[in-house]
Amino acid sequence: MKCVAFDWQGAIHLGALDADGATVQRFDLPSDVVSEAGVTALIGTDPPPVAETLPLAEVSLRAPIPRPSRNVFCVGKNYHEHAHEFAKSGFDSSAAKGAVPTAPIVFSKVPECVIAPGAAVAIDASVSTAIDYEAELAVIIGKDGRNIRPEDALSHVWGYTIVNDVTARDLQGKHSQWLIGKSQDTFCPMGPCAVTADEIDLSDTTVRCWINGELRQESNTNLLIFDVPTIIAAISNGVTLRAGDVIATGTPAGVGIGFDPPKYLVPGDRVKIEIGGIGVLEHPVEAA
Fold it and tell me: Among 40, 61, 82, which residue terminates a domain?
Protein backbone atom coordinates (compact mmCIF):
# COMPACT_ATOMS: atom_id res chain seq x y z
CA MET A 1 0.00 0.00 0.00
CA LYS A 2 1.28 3.47 -0.94
CA CYS A 3 0.21 5.81 1.83
CA VAL A 4 0.13 9.60 1.57
CA ALA A 5 -0.48 12.61 3.79
CA PHE A 6 -2.17 15.54 2.10
CA ASP A 7 -4.01 18.82 2.56
CA TRP A 8 -7.60 18.97 1.34
CA GLN A 9 -10.39 21.36 2.22
CA GLY A 10 -8.32 23.06 4.89
CA ALA A 11 -7.29 19.97 6.82
CA ILE A 12 -4.64 17.24 6.86
CA HIS A 13 -5.77 13.81 5.65
CA LEU A 14 -4.29 10.37 5.11
CA GLY A 15 -4.97 8.07 2.21
CA ALA A 16 -3.64 5.49 -0.21
CA LEU A 17 -2.67 6.02 -3.83
CA ASP A 18 -4.59 3.96 -6.35
CA ALA A 19 -2.72 1.83 -8.86
CA ASP A 20 -3.27 4.45 -11.57
CA GLY A 21 -1.29 7.00 -9.56
CA ALA A 22 -3.88 9.61 -10.48
CA THR A 23 -6.32 9.18 -7.61
CA VAL A 24 -6.11 8.83 -3.84
CA GLN A 25 -8.45 7.01 -1.50
CA ARG A 26 -9.05 9.26 1.49
CA PHE A 27 -9.19 7.35 4.75
CA ASP A 28 -12.10 7.94 7.10
CA LEU A 29 -10.19 8.91 10.22
CA PRO A 30 -11.12 11.14 13.15
CA SER A 31 -9.57 14.60 12.92
CA ASP A 32 -7.65 14.12 16.17
CA VAL A 33 -5.83 11.11 14.66
CA VAL A 34 -4.56 12.90 11.56
CA SER A 35 -1.77 15.32 12.38
CA GLU A 36 1.83 16.22 11.64
CA ALA A 37 2.62 12.57 12.46
CA GLY A 38 1.34 11.69 8.98
CA VAL A 39 1.43 8.03 8.02
CA THR A 40 2.81 7.02 11.41
CA ALA A 41 -0.81 7.28 12.61
CA LEU A 42 -1.41 4.09 10.61
CA ILE A 43 1.27 2.05 12.39
CA GLY A 44 -0.14 -0.83 14.39
CA THR A 45 -3.67 -0.46 13.00
CA ASP A 46 -5.76 -2.18 10.37
CA PRO A 47 -6.26 -0.22 7.11
CA PRO A 48 -8.94 2.39 7.83
CA PRO A 49 -12.17 2.50 5.83
CA VAL A 50 -12.15 4.63 2.70
CA ALA A 51 -14.30 7.74 2.82
CA GLU A 52 -14.00 8.70 -0.85
CA THR A 53 -11.74 8.72 -3.89
CA LEU A 54 -10.20 12.02 -4.91
CA PRO A 55 -8.21 13.10 -7.97
CA LEU A 56 -4.60 13.48 -6.90
CA ALA A 57 -4.51 16.80 -8.75
CA GLU A 58 -7.07 18.20 -6.30
CA VAL A 59 -5.02 17.58 -3.17
CA SER A 60 -1.68 18.95 -1.97
CA LEU A 61 0.76 16.26 -0.91
CA ARG A 62 2.71 16.69 2.28
CA ALA A 63 5.75 14.67 3.30
CA PRO A 64 4.38 11.29 4.41
CA ILE A 65 5.67 12.20 7.89
CA PRO A 66 5.38 16.00 7.83
CA ARG A 67 7.16 16.39 11.16
CA PRO A 68 8.98 13.33 12.55
CA SER A 69 8.72 13.03 16.32
CA ARG A 70 12.51 13.19 16.64
CA ASN A 71 15.62 13.58 14.52
CA VAL A 72 15.91 11.58 11.31
CA PHE A 73 18.66 8.98 11.69
CA CYS A 74 21.03 8.88 8.71
CA VAL A 75 23.84 6.59 7.56
CA GLY A 76 26.90 8.03 5.82
CA LYS A 77 29.19 6.45 3.24
CA ASN A 78 27.06 3.33 2.76
CA TYR A 79 27.78 2.55 -0.90
CA HIS A 80 31.35 1.57 -1.85
CA GLU A 81 31.76 3.97 -4.80
CA HIS A 82 30.29 6.88 -2.85
CA ALA A 83 32.55 6.12 0.12
CA HIS A 84 35.57 6.49 -2.16
CA GLU A 85 34.32 9.65 -3.91
CA PHE A 86 33.55 11.31 -0.59
CA ALA A 87 36.88 10.29 0.96
CA LYS A 88 38.63 12.06 -1.93
CA SER A 89 36.56 15.23 -1.58
CA GLY A 90 38.41 16.76 1.36
CA PHE A 91 35.19 17.12 3.36
CA ASP A 92 35.25 13.67 4.97
CA SER A 93 36.24 13.89 8.64
CA SER A 94 36.23 10.07 8.85
CA ALA A 95 38.61 9.50 5.92
CA ALA A 96 41.62 9.00 8.21
CA LYS A 97 40.13 5.65 9.19
CA GLY A 98 39.83 4.57 5.56
CA ALA A 99 37.45 5.29 2.73
CA VAL A 100 35.11 2.38 3.46
CA PRO A 101 33.75 2.33 7.02
CA THR A 102 33.95 -0.81 9.16
CA ALA A 103 30.80 0.10 11.09
CA PRO A 104 27.82 2.27 10.14
CA ILE A 105 28.47 6.02 10.37
CA VAL A 106 25.33 7.44 11.96
CA PHE A 107 24.32 11.11 12.16
CA SER A 108 20.99 12.92 12.15
CA LYS A 109 18.90 15.69 10.64
CA VAL A 110 16.51 17.77 12.73
CA PRO A 111 12.79 17.12 12.09
CA GLU A 112 12.12 20.73 11.07
CA CYS A 113 14.14 20.38 7.86
CA VAL A 114 11.59 17.92 6.36
CA ILE A 115 9.61 19.38 3.46
CA ALA A 116 6.91 18.11 1.12
CA PRO A 117 7.39 16.73 -2.38
CA GLY A 118 7.41 19.65 -4.77
CA ALA A 119 8.46 22.15 -2.11
CA ALA A 120 11.66 24.05 -2.82
CA VAL A 121 15.05 23.48 -1.27
CA ALA A 122 16.15 26.99 -0.32
CA ILE A 123 19.77 28.05 -0.79
CA ASP A 124 20.85 30.83 1.52
CA ALA A 125 24.00 32.11 -0.18
CA SER A 126 25.00 34.00 2.97
CA VAL A 127 25.37 30.64 4.73
CA SER A 128 26.56 28.23 2.03
CA THR A 129 26.83 27.86 -1.73
CA ALA A 130 28.20 24.29 -1.64
CA ILE A 131 24.81 22.56 -1.57
CA ASP A 132 24.73 18.90 -2.55
CA TYR A 133 22.02 16.31 -3.20
CA GLU A 134 21.88 12.73 -1.88
CA ALA A 135 19.15 10.35 -3.05
CA GLU A 136 18.30 7.82 -0.35
CA LEU A 137 15.92 5.03 0.61
CA ALA A 138 14.49 5.75 4.07
CA VAL A 139 13.17 3.18 6.53
CA ILE A 140 10.12 3.87 8.70
CA ILE A 141 10.20 1.96 11.99
CA GLY A 142 6.91 0.34 12.99
CA LYS A 143 7.73 -1.32 16.31
CA ASP A 144 9.79 -0.17 19.29
CA GLY A 145 12.99 -2.04 19.99
CA ARG A 146 16.37 -1.87 21.71
CA ASN A 147 19.38 -4.12 21.03
CA ILE A 148 17.54 -5.51 18.02
CA ARG A 149 19.24 -8.53 16.42
CA PRO A 150 19.84 -8.31 12.66
CA GLU A 151 17.74 -11.43 12.10
CA ASP A 152 14.79 -9.73 13.83
CA ALA A 153 15.29 -6.25 12.42
CA LEU A 154 12.92 -6.33 9.46
CA SER A 155 10.04 -7.24 11.78
CA HIS A 156 10.47 -3.73 13.21
CA VAL A 157 10.01 -2.05 9.81
CA TRP A 158 6.62 -0.62 8.86
CA GLY A 159 7.58 0.82 5.49
CA TYR A 160 9.84 2.90 3.30
CA THR A 161 9.97 6.31 1.65
CA ILE A 162 12.37 8.53 -0.32
CA VAL A 163 14.46 11.37 1.09
CA ASN A 164 16.95 13.78 -0.38
CA ASP A 165 19.66 14.18 2.27
CA VAL A 166 20.57 17.70 1.12
CA THR A 167 23.94 18.79 2.49
CA ALA A 168 25.95 22.00 2.82
CA ARG A 169 29.40 20.54 2.12
CA ASP A 170 31.38 23.52 3.39
CA LEU A 171 29.54 23.49 6.72
CA GLN A 172 30.02 19.74 6.91
CA GLY A 173 33.76 20.24 6.56
CA LYS A 174 33.99 23.33 8.76
CA HIS A 175 32.33 21.73 11.77
CA SER A 176 33.83 18.23 11.35
CA GLN A 177 30.40 16.93 12.29
CA TRP A 178 27.42 16.73 10.03
CA LEU A 179 24.30 17.93 11.86
CA ILE A 180 24.53 21.63 10.94
CA GLY A 181 25.38 21.01 7.29
CA LYS A 182 22.62 18.41 7.02
CA SER A 183 19.90 20.21 8.99
CA GLN A 184 19.55 23.56 7.25
CA ASP A 185 15.94 24.63 6.70
CA THR A 186 14.33 22.68 3.77
CA PHE A 187 17.21 20.16 3.61
CA CYS A 188 15.09 16.99 3.80
CA PRO A 189 12.56 16.63 0.98
CA MET A 190 10.53 13.47 1.68
CA GLY A 191 7.92 11.49 -0.26
CA PRO A 192 5.88 11.40 -2.34
CA CYS A 193 4.44 8.46 -0.40
CA ALA A 194 5.38 5.83 2.15
CA VAL A 195 5.01 2.23 1.03
CA THR A 196 4.38 -0.64 3.40
CA ALA A 197 7.31 -3.02 3.84
CA ASP A 198 5.71 -5.85 1.85
CA GLU A 199 6.07 -3.82 -1.37
CA ILE A 200 9.87 -3.38 -1.27
CA ASP A 201 12.48 -6.02 -2.16
CA LEU A 202 15.65 -4.81 -0.48
CA SER A 203 17.69 -7.27 -2.52
CA ASP A 204 16.76 -5.47 -5.74
CA THR A 205 15.53 -1.89 -5.41
CA THR A 206 16.87 0.74 -7.78
CA VAL A 207 17.92 4.22 -6.64
CA ARG A 208 18.29 6.97 -9.26
CA CYS A 209 18.70 10.74 -9.22
CA TRP A 210 18.53 13.29 -12.04
CA ILE A 211 19.52 16.96 -11.88
CA ASN A 212 17.88 19.00 -14.64
CA GLY A 213 17.30 15.78 -16.58
CA GLU A 214 20.92 14.58 -16.27
CA LEU A 215 21.20 11.15 -14.62
CA ARG A 216 23.73 11.60 -11.80
CA GLN A 217 23.11 8.66 -9.46
CA GLU A 218 22.12 5.10 -10.34
CA SER A 219 22.53 2.14 -8.00
CA ASN A 220 20.67 -0.59 -6.15
CA THR A 221 20.04 -1.35 -2.49
CA ASN A 222 21.76 -4.70 -2.97
CA LEU A 223 25.00 -2.69 -3.10
CA LEU A 224 24.65 -1.18 0.38
CA ILE A 225 27.77 -1.71 2.49
CA PHE A 226 25.58 -2.17 5.57
CA ASP A 227 22.15 -3.58 4.79
CA VAL A 228 18.96 -2.48 6.51
CA PRO A 229 19.02 -5.19 9.22
CA THR A 230 22.63 -4.29 10.07
CA ILE A 231 21.77 -0.58 10.24
CA ILE A 232 18.79 -1.18 12.54
CA ALA A 233 20.84 -3.43 14.81
CA ALA A 234 23.65 -0.84 15.03
CA ILE A 235 21.40 2.13 15.80
CA SER A 236 19.35 0.21 18.37
CA ASN A 237 22.48 -0.88 20.22
CA GLY A 238 21.60 0.76 23.54
CA VAL A 239 19.26 3.26 21.84
CA THR A 240 15.56 2.45 21.78
CA LEU A 241 14.14 2.82 18.30
CA ARG A 242 10.52 3.94 18.39
CA ALA A 243 7.63 3.45 16.01
CA GLY A 244 7.68 6.36 13.56
CA ASP A 245 11.45 6.80 13.58
CA VAL A 246 12.95 7.42 10.13
CA ILE A 247 16.34 6.05 9.02
CA ALA A 248 17.94 7.24 5.77
CA THR A 249 20.17 4.42 4.54
CA GLY A 250 22.85 6.29 2.58
CA THR A 251 23.40 7.62 -0.93
CA PRO A 252 25.10 6.10 -3.99
CA ALA A 253 27.98 7.60 -5.97
CA GLY A 254 27.29 10.56 -8.25
CA VAL A 255 26.73 13.33 -5.73
CA GLY A 256 27.87 16.82 -6.67
CA ILE A 257 31.08 16.72 -4.62
CA GLY A 258 32.22 13.70 -6.64
CA PHE A 259 32.71 15.73 -9.82
CA ASP A 260 35.74 17.85 -10.74
CA PRO A 261 34.80 20.63 -10.42
CA PRO A 262 31.89 19.86 -8.05
CA LYS A 263 28.38 20.10 -9.46
CA TYR A 264 26.58 21.77 -6.58
CA LEU A 265 22.91 22.70 -6.65
CA VAL A 266 22.06 26.27 -7.64
CA PRO A 267 18.78 28.20 -7.75
CA GLY A 268 16.78 27.14 -10.79
CA ASP A 269 17.86 23.49 -10.63
CA ARG A 270 15.32 20.69 -10.48
CA VAL A 271 15.95 17.41 -8.65
CA LYS A 272 14.22 14.14 -9.49
CA ILE A 273 14.74 11.00 -7.37
CA GLU A 274 13.21 7.66 -8.27
CA ILE A 275 13.27 4.56 -6.06
CA GLY A 276 11.77 1.33 -7.36
CA GLY A 277 8.47 0.39 -5.74
CA ILE A 278 7.99 3.83 -4.16
CA GLY A 279 7.82 6.40 -6.93
CA VAL A 280 9.35 9.74 -7.81
CA LEU A 281 10.27 12.61 -5.50
CA GLU A 282 10.79 15.90 -7.34
CA HIS A 283 11.54 19.37 -6.10
CA PRO A 284 12.97 22.69 -7.32
CA VAL A 285 15.90 24.62 -5.89
CA GLU A 286 15.42 28.30 -5.12
CA ALA A 287 17.30 31.18 -3.53
CA ALA A 288 16.30 31.79 0.07
Answer: 61
